[in-house]
Design goal:
The protein has 281 residues and is of the alpha/beta class. It is built from 5 helices and 13 strands. The strands form 2 sheets. Strands 2-1-13-9-10-11-12 form a 7-stranded mixed beta sheet, sandwiched between helices. Strands 6-5-8-3-4-7 form a 6-stranded antiparallel beta sheet. Helix 4 links the parallel strand 10 and strand 11. It starts with a helix and ends with a strand. Its EC number is 1.6.2.2.
């Protein structure tokens, strides 16, 4: 069953990122790539959302204070350098990931001068439904110089990865804002997808969502088939794609996300709007 899932999902997830991550995100009007950010803009200030504790939570697999081993159940190649990884745990438990949160992974990379184990540590956002029990899925691009992604590429079914978390970036609640705008690039789409799916699967959530999604080329657009399906079946989701290197028949935007794209494609500042930014090319 898992193998069937991965075959279907890999076909529906064309990914082909090229090269190393681009330069760091500079301003809301010009996305050039870089490490991940997830902020909200609620006029007039830009700020982090604070974590909110909720009591009475169901049984969860994650522990924010302890490294837990999760066993690799299955893998699938999505492109020449991008892979899907499914990790399993207690089928009666949820992962314990809130919407737009990420997990922290670590892997040993030798020893220091005192003989103690050295680790590489990296955050990832699962693409599986946070309500799923017994498993979570990661979509990872394997960089030539990426110590953690190269470690993932060597894993075989039955191997384990140490995970800690969750690290919460946004505590979403239905209808918390009338309109949410999103700026994303590359693999930065993963937490955005969590928010989008949480909104769309709730019939009582009337939030409007506008997404500006930047990539290197049309072939690099992660999860495009799924995003297009969601937009076509939900009128409250609007998506605009832009790429650095458009193909001959490309009908979306060209170049980095510009001020004009932001003004035309995202909601204006108000007490009832929210802008999320997450870029990782």
């Amino acid at each position: 069953m898992a193998s069937t899932f991965f075959r279907r999902l890999s076909k529906a997830t064309p990914v082909s990122f090229g090269g190393q991550p681009k330069s760091t995100f500079g301003a809301i009007a010009a996305v050039t790539g870089g490490i991940s950010y997830l902020y909200y803009y609620n006029s007039p200030n830009l700020a982090h959302l604070e974590e909110v504790k909720v009591e009475g939570s169901p049984k969860v697999a994650l522990n924010p204070d302890k490294w837990i081993e999760f066993k690799l159940q299955d893998t699938a190649r999505v492109s020449h350098n991008t892979h899907l990884f499914r990790f399993s745990f207690d089928p009666a438990a949820k992962l314990g990931l809130d919407i737009a949160s990420c997990i922290i992974t670590r892997a040993p990379i030798g020893q220091d001068a005192e003989g103690k184990t050295k680790y590489v540590v990296r955050p990832y956002t699962p693409i599986s439904d946070p309500d799923s029990k017994g498993y979570f899925d990661l979509l990872i691009k394997v960089y030539p110089e990426g110590k953690m992604s190269q470690h993932f590429a060597t894993l075989k079914s039955g191997d384990v990865v140490e995970v800690k978390g969750p690290i919460e970036k946004l505590r979403y609640s239905p209808n918390m804002k009338k309109h949410i705008g999103m700026i994303s690039g590359g693999t930065g789409i993963t937490p955005m997808l969590q928010v989008i799916e949480a909104i769309l699967k709730n019939p009582d959530d009337n939030t409007q969502v506008s997404l500006l999604y930047a990539n290197v080329s049309p072939d690099d657009i992660l999860l495009k088939q799924k995003l297009d399906f969601l937009a076509a079946s939900h009128p409250n989701l609007k998506i605009f794609y832009t790429v650095d290197n458009p193909s001959k028949n490309w009908k979306g935007g060209s170049g980095y996300i510009s001020k004009d794209m932001v003004v035309k494609g995202l909601p204006g500042p108000s007490d009832d709007t929210l802008i999320l930014v997450n870029v990782n090319l």
